[in-house]
Structure formats: C-alpha cells, structure tokens
Amino acid sequence: MTARIREVVVTPVAFPDPPLLNSAGVHQPWALRAIVELRCGDGLIGLGETYGDAPHLELLRGVGPTLVGLDPFDTNGLWRRVGRALGGVDAPDRHGLTGGSSPQKTALRVFSPFEVACLDLQGHLIGRPVADLLGGRVRDRVPFSAYLFYKWAAHPPADGPASLVGGLPPAGDPYPEALDPAGIVEQARLMIAQYGFGSIKLKGGVFPPGEEIAAIRALREAFPELPLRLDPNAAWSVATSIRVAEETEGLLEYLEDPTPGIAGMAEVAEAAPMPLATNMCVVSPADIPPGFTQEAVGVVLSDHHYWGGLRRSAELAAMCRTWGVGVSMHSNSHLGISLAAMTQLGAALPELTYAADTHTPWQCGVDVLDRPLPITGGAVTVPDAPGLGVALDRDALARLHENYLRCAIRERDDTSYRRIFEPGYTRRRPRW
Ligand SMILES: [Mg+2]
Predict the structure, then answer these.
(1) Can you give the pTM of this predicted structure?
(2) CA–CA separation, 274 vs 257, rounded Å?
(3) Is 151 an annotated catalytic residue?
(4) pLDDT, tens digit (0-9, with 9 covering 90-100), for 134-174
(5) 3-state class of 251 per DSSP?
(6) Which tens digit of pLDDT belongs to each residue from 305-331?
(7) Which architecture does CATH list for 7-130+395-406?
(8) Which residues 6+ apart lie within 8 Å of 162 measured at CB?
(9) How many angstroms is it from 277 CA to the middle of ligand 1?
(10) Residue 304 alpha carbon to ligand 1 centre in Å
(11) Residue 330 known to be catalytic
C-alpha cells in the first residue's frame, strides 16, 4: 500500500508539572511539548511527540511543509529533507544535556518526531505494531522505573510570583512535599502502590551529597529487593563523586552522571564500584568514540527524542552491545505518544537490560490520547494494534493547546523559575 504525506501539523501543548527539584532549579508549573501529526488523507495519521520550546517549535514548523509528498517508508528521504530545511543550523537545547550544541544534534532532535510519526504510519499501512518494524518483540512488557524527585508541596501561589509564568494549573499533584529521606520513602510508597514499579531512581543533585546518600539508605531499608539509582545531574566534583560512589557501594545498580564531562566521568568510573550511567556526556554519535574508549560509562540512557528517533536509538543500542556498555532509557516530562514510542522501542531492543525512566506518574493522568497505555506491575504491555498503538483525543489536544496559549512559558528554564523564589540561586556544575 502506498501513501504520501499531505499535511504536517505541529501543535504545541502545555500540561501541569509539579515543583520537582533538580540540580538546575525547579520545574515550572507547565511543561511544554509539541505534538506532530503527519496526515496522509483518509484518516491516516502518524503521531510524534517532542519538546515544545519556542526555538525547537520554530525548527519543526520550518521543516513541516517540506515533508509534503514524502512516502512515510522513506525515512532516508526524510533525513535528507530535514537536513536541507535546517541548512546546518545549530540550536541549543535546555533538556539536561551538556557538551554543547551542534548542527548534528539539532538535526537528530528535529528529525526524531517525524521519524516516529513515519514509523507509526508504516505500522498503520501494513497493520503491524512499530516494534515489528524495529526487528520484532523480544519482550511483551517493557519495564519502567519509579522516578523520585525532591519536591515542594505545591507551586507557590498564583497571585504571587507564579503569575510571571501565566498562573498555575487548577489542581495540584497528589504527592506531598519531599525534602528529606522520609519524604522520599513516602513518595516511593505512593508511586509504587499505584504503578507497581520494580526499580527506583532518585533525582539528586539538590541537597549536599550526604543527605542524598541518607535517602538512598532509607530507600534500601524500605525496599530491600528493588534496584536503586541516583542521578545528581553532574552536581559533584570528581573527588566528591568518588567518595559518594565508595559510600554507596552495594546500594546502587548504577550511578548516573555524578560529574560533568567524559574525562571527569572516566576518572570516577575507574574508582567507582558500580557502573556509571549517562544521559549527559554521551548524548550524540560524536560522543561515542571518546566516551567508550575512555571507559567513562557502563550504561547509556538512550532517548529517541535526541538520538534521532527509534531506528537510530536501536543503532545506538547495537553500538553499546559491541562495546559491552549497558542500555537504559532517559526521560524528560512527556505525554503518552512518547511513552508509546519508548514502549515500542523497548519491546524491540534486546540490549535494554534496565527498566526505563519515565515521568508519566508526574503527568497525573493528563494526556492527549484517548486511551494512554497504562503502567501496571511496573511495566507497559506492548500494544498489538498497528503503529504506536495509540490515538489522539482531539478534545484533550485542544485543551492542552489552550493551556499552552494561556501560560506564559515558551522555553523550559528551571533555574530562572527557582530564582523567582530564591533570588540568590545559581546553577553550578559541579556544586559540591
Ligand atoms: Mg539523567
């Protein structure tokens, strides 16, 4: 069956995001995403999801019209068209990556949602799930990890500084304040009770390392069987990282991005008793040779949003296999199209030996889909339906687009948002 892309629609959306703390600041009250639709007529639509920041949106919208007439099976043609439309532009990113921007990183990031949408279309056209297009399932259930954050109870009131970002979502989130080990354990209990997660990640880099080690010890005591991870987002020096690694020996399945840069990570890796993982120092093809030859990381957190879609993420996993490097999966705040894409990819990756990260619990049920894929028993069952296995709820998409139009946020900026409440706050890596 043949089909051609007739129309490309990019819709920015905003959804409520709780005040989650990290080494760069605190999440703003609204998280931005862009929903990409490739329309082929007769109701045939391919879906993709990506970042919603204004500079990225502009690039997506520049590329969109150039895809009209493309065969959705021609993803090499898609890559060429994206490259031509971008013309070698180098656009920075605000999603936790380091190592600077590059035209290659920009192209991979812009290509990704269109590639995912093409794979969704291909699946619809041949009546098979995307996982089958990626080599077939190696598992029917893709495990995800509980993703714990230090957090405030709620965003400060809407009539105060929050008015600067266009007000607050009407409802808060069900997770209480978590600023110490007891709060983190309570959050884990709530999240695991609802979703059944079988592993736990703590976002660190918020408090001095000793406090975060105490939280890890408290989690170990409360959940003796579950693998634990700690991710301070490069908040520590090499010396601090080595000390924390030694103090957490036997407690962590991996330590994620303790310190900035490949050279620093390599120094820590040599001394650390556990593997180091990254979504900050090996984040593009150009990072692989130095990252792997210097043995800076034992696990790469793949992320199809910046590795250039699902097939290129599978290529990354194959390279990791060659080098004996493990594969896990990274996440930013996202909606259900991204979860479906991660699930299809996770189903087809033999190398995915760790539960993937997801921010899904922090969405608190908000989505653009009519039936989001549920997380039960800590995993998502791979849908049998064609393509990604999900469909848009047009009313929900309209509501989330309205949120976007109403809120004043146009780029993610955790540091500036935190500075509203703590004027002296600065972003420093390393901080300790
Ligand atoms: Mg990370």
Answers:
(1) 0.97
(2) 12
(3) no
(4) 999 999 999 999 999 999 999 987 556 555 666 677 778 99
(5) coil
(6) 999 999 999 999 999 999 999 999 999
(7) 2-Layer Sandwich (3.30)
(8) 29, 155, 156, 168, 420
(9) 8
(10) 14
(11) yes
